[in-house]
Design a protein that fits this description.
Layout (H helix, E strand, L loop, with lengths): L6 E4 L15 H14 L3 E5 L5 H13 L4 E7 L2 H11 L5 E8 L2 H7 L4 H18 L2 E7 L6 H13 L4 E6 L6 H14 L7 E6 L6 H10 L4 E4 L13 H10 L1 H4 L10 H12 L20 H9 L28 H10 L6 H17 L5 H14 L1
Parallel strand pairs: 1-2, 1-8, 2-3, 3-4, 4-5, 5-6, 6-7, 7-8
The chain binds 3-methyl-2-oxobutanoic acid and zinc ion (ZN).
């Protein structure tokens, strides 16, 4: 495989579904999984099969019906979880079981109420059991970024000894920082040399708004799988947003040198679908998929974009699948040039004194209305033309 190719592991249907209030039925999950396949993700984490009979069914349906991506099911490091996950993904073209156990002392003492020794044994047994059922096994040391790096390395070594094929390093509570996360991964590469022979993966939460930055730092440190979700959905403040990390790699490809297999023109459709089916709206100023992401309000910006789009746009809206309709929002900050261009789009070739008059009336209107619509413009210009 190309060493610069990043595997996109989408967890919208698992970690994303853990967002408060989201509960997708099997048909909805299948619809999203089919769109994820069109988008070109490499791995779909379809759910947590032991969690409920409905989730088991949804994962099984996706495994049977969605071709292309690897289909993964999540499992705690318990035999029953692993068996249920393996059964759910069994019919996939390429099934994967993803098993995890925490390595931080906070989790070991307070949540698992266990010991490091037991965790090490459980991790080893879980990976061995999963490998007896499927060939492709991912292992995650949960809360790794708050764990002792030496102990985490010991657990990873055990997972590799038992045949794990992907090692994922979760920043479960979104606590780490880019330099720190990269240093953590670099240290693991030193402590566990076998990591160079498998895929290292990043899984970052967004509690401090650093999920994408931390994931990117992880890729620069050598990871080649990124776990992410459409619209950045996920537990609490969410996961790294798929569209943001993918477009970062695309827009800065010449500098970073990493690629994905994502068909970016399917991003907008995926975002709208996930928003509709989960009921989670997208904030207007969200990078890449927010409704303002390609809109220009200030007169200076509008003037620049009308002369040459690259003045204020680093990617085209068409490249992420939005229709290439006008990205100019007319409001009180807009200039004469933007008005003239909007009128031209509506079929009115207006210049000179008529444009000056129309512009004056437009500014009066814009002071009263937040956004001036095409209908307002038509009314305004036809009045002006009539007065001529
Ligand atoms: O955030 C996390 O630690 C997880 C694991 C299950 C990978 O979602
Ligand atoms: Zn997570």
């Amino acid at each position: 495989m190309d060493p610069n190719r990043v595997i996109v592991f989408d967890t919208t249907l698992r970690d994303g579904e853990q967002s408060p209030g989201i509960s997708l039925n099997a048909a909805e999950k299948l619809e999203i999984a089919q769109q994820l396949a069109r988008l070109g993700v490499d791995v779909i984490e379809a759910g947590f099969p032991i969690a409920s009979p409905g989730d088991f069914q949804a994962v099984r349906t996706i495994a049977r019906e969605v071709q292309g991506p690897i289909i993964a099911g999540l499992a705690r490091a318990h035999a029953a979880d692993i068996e249920r996950a393996a059964e759910a993904v069994r019919d996939a073209e390429r099934p994967r079981v993803h098993t995890f156990i925490s390595t931080s002392d906070i989790h070991i003492q307070h949540q698992l109420q266990s010991t490091r020794e037991d965790v090490l044994g459980q991790a080893r047994a879980a990976v061995a059991h999963a490998r007896s059922l499927v060939e492709d096994v991912e292992f995650s040391p949960m809360d790794a970024t708050r764990a002792d790096v030496e102990f985490t390395a010991e657990v990873l070594q055990a997972a590799l000894d038992e045949g794990a094929t992907t090692i994922n390093i979760p920043d479960t509570v979104g606590y780490t920082m880019p330099d720190e996360y990269a240093a953590f991964l670099t240290r693991l590469y030193v402590l566990v040399p076998g990591l160079h022979d498998v895929v290292l993966s990043v899984h970052c939460h967004n509690d401090l708004g650093l999920a994408v930055a931390n994931s990117f730092a992880g890729l620069k440190a050598g990871a080649r799988q990124i776990e992410c979700a459409i619209n950045g959905l996920g537990e609490r403040a969410g996961n790294a947003s798929l569209e943001e990390i993918v477009m970062l790699l695309r827009v800065r490809e010449a500098d970073v040198g990493l690629t994905t297999g994502i068909n970016t023109r399917e991003i907008a459709r995926a975002s709208r679908m996930v928003s509709r089916l989960t009921g989670y709206g997208v904030q207007p100023n969200k990078a890449i998929v927010g409704r303002n992401a390609f809109q220009h309000e200030s007169g200076i910006h509008q003037d620049g974009v009308l002369k040459e789009r690259s003045t204020y746009e680093i990617m085209s809206k068409a490249s992420v699948g939005f229709d290439d309709v006008s990205s100019i929002v007319l409001g009180k900050h807009s200039g004469r040039h933007a008005l003239q261009s909007a009128l031209m789009d509506l079929g009115y070739d207006v210049a000179g004194q008529t444009l000056n008059q129309a512009f004056k009336r437009f500014k009066e209107l814009a002071d009263k209305k937040k956004q001036v619509t095409a209908m307002d413009l038509e009314a305004l210009v036809t009045d002006e033309l009539r007065a001529d």
